[in-house]
Amino acid sequence: MTTGTRRVEAPRSIWRTLIRLVSRACCGTMPRAALAMCAGSLIAVSPLGMQHARAAYAIAQYGNPKYPPDFKHFDYVNPDAPRGGTLVLANPDRSTSFDKFNPFTLRGSAAPGIGLLFESLTTGSADEVASAYGLLADDINVAPDGLSTTFHINPHARFSNGDPVTAEDVKFSFDTLKSPQAAPQFAAYFADITRVVIVDPVTVRFEFKQRDRELPLLAGGMPVFSRKWGMKADGSRTPFDQLAFEKPIGSGPYLIESYDNGRTITYKRDPNYWGKNLPVRVGTYNFERINYKLYSDATARLEAFKAGEYDALVENIARNWVRRDVGKKFDSGELIKREFPHHNGTGMQGFILNQRRPIFSDVRVRKALDLALDFQWLDRQLFYNQYKRIDSFFVNTDLQAKGLPSPGELKLLDPWRAQLYPSVFGVPPKQPDTDPPGSLRANLLEARALLAQAGWTYRDGALRNAKGEPFVFEILDDSGSSAAFEPVIAPYVRNLQKLGIEARFRVTDFAVYQKRLDAFDFDVTTIRFPDVQVPGADMIDRFGSKAASEPGSGNLIGLKSPAVDAILRALVAAQTREQLVDAVHALDRVLINGYYIVPHWYSATHRVAFKRGLAWPKTLPLYYTADAWITSMWWFAQPQ
Predict the structure, then answer these.
(1) What CA–CA distance (Å, rounded) separates 161 from 178?
(2) What's this model's pTM, rounded to 2 decimal places?
(3) DSSP one-letter string for 187-235
(4) Which domain of life is it from (predicted)?
(5) Nearest in space to 533 (alpha carbons), one of 24, 191, 15, 4
(6) Which domain holds residue 477?
(7) Between the N and C ends of the chain, which has fewer C-beta atoms within 10 Å?
(8) CATH assignment at residue 535
(9) Sign of the dihedral defined by the CA atoms of residues 508, 513, 515, 519, in that order
């Protein structure tokens, strides 16, 4: 039914996704970097890990960057795209209002599109999985021992207030993001970056705890902002975690032009934007203005689109796409529907079973809950046969574990054999199927047997444990998406009732929902972990034991496993693509056999409805999100 309307990963995921360069090339909600045009710096590629690293215009986590030093633009943009017009969009996520411009702090909801104001030292491309091209940095030097990376700042780089971007600003940004005043995810991501050293006014060095091929990319992807942001006229400073509607001072292509009551905001292209002619900016950010209107719920948002109130809608609900995204304006061609293929890893979406709750501590119970979901019925009755069942945390990529473990995987898994489920060492399990010869009845019978083995038996009108306590839990959702998702939850709840389990559907507004998730105050909820092409430090925040105890972290599952922690260390330390794949396969095996999530479904296309007159490049990116692709690479083919 939906692969993208669900809450993406964990709180403040915009900047977590930014740091992961997988979404690096076309994110209208994230800072974009660009290649600096400093002729002296456009020299030979320096692949990460070479013994004699030279200063370079680009680096790659594995192998070499795709684009040569003299490239003019990325292959998937239109270098001749006309500029102008106002693009009007609706809520890009489930937030229905905003109360701040600062996207780097824990509390509150940041304005949609605020990433348009920020840039970073480097950026990647949308047709490579892990490369970084200079933007604020025009020269990148990875030390031969891999323990530091030095960035030289493009002398033309400017903040929106006209100040040059300096090494001091970069250090200030890093120190601030790693401090307690920023969201805790940043400290987790940058844990292996020990410090930033100012070499000279336009040169900074990031120093690392250990050799890690991902760290230079993480350092380069850090958002940079002016140290004057929050500075008062008398020289005093507003604490970073108290910045609300103080306009950020960044170096991105847009400025805040106006906003109203936390429900609308308009960005205008900065007429003095310093990077407008850079190779990675050619053909991008073509709209003169980008305006966001936030609607109270998904139904209001859809009806507003059909009424012509905004220009493009990324449709994540199959029923809407088939049954509701129709009408006279679609028939006349005023509104158009298209499906755009992508090669993203589709991420994991499903019912998160909070391991902090004792009722979910037994793997047999968790597997029983998985058996109760009838995906085939949902796909026929609600999804119009548009989806496939997720059977991996890294589905649709070569990172998905298949078959028996390889020797490289066994090297990581064997030391923990006594702590792991025996099934981890076999072929990954298939998700339950109700198509003949399978059936829901057979699945529920298997689930009942597993529950009995775990000490849960049916008596006195409910499934009870040895203490007589009934099996009851709450499925938490937010009001912005509950209407769309309730048809999925209702049949799942009915199937659970057949087992004697009572699942209560609880709906709250998004602010309360987010607060409860920050505090891990939930039984079950629905989360979509974002697309991943090259897993790295983000996996520690999502599955690491330490993160399970950090409020606001990505480890909503509550997973605490020494085996997983060891695999994550190997993943982050991987020096070759082969080592990375072995580590991710091992991680996938442990997670999928743990049944920590009841997996949902995925699609390999983006469904977009838009007004006639919008246009896009002929060549599509490989790895991209639809909302960000629209804001960064589309244009108006007809004058407004």
Answers:
(1) 25
(2) 0.73
(3) HHHTTTEEEEEEEETTEEEEEESS--TTHHHHHHTSEE--TTTTB-TTS
(4) Bacteria
(5) 24
(6) 349-602
(7) C
(8) 3.10.105.10
(9) positive
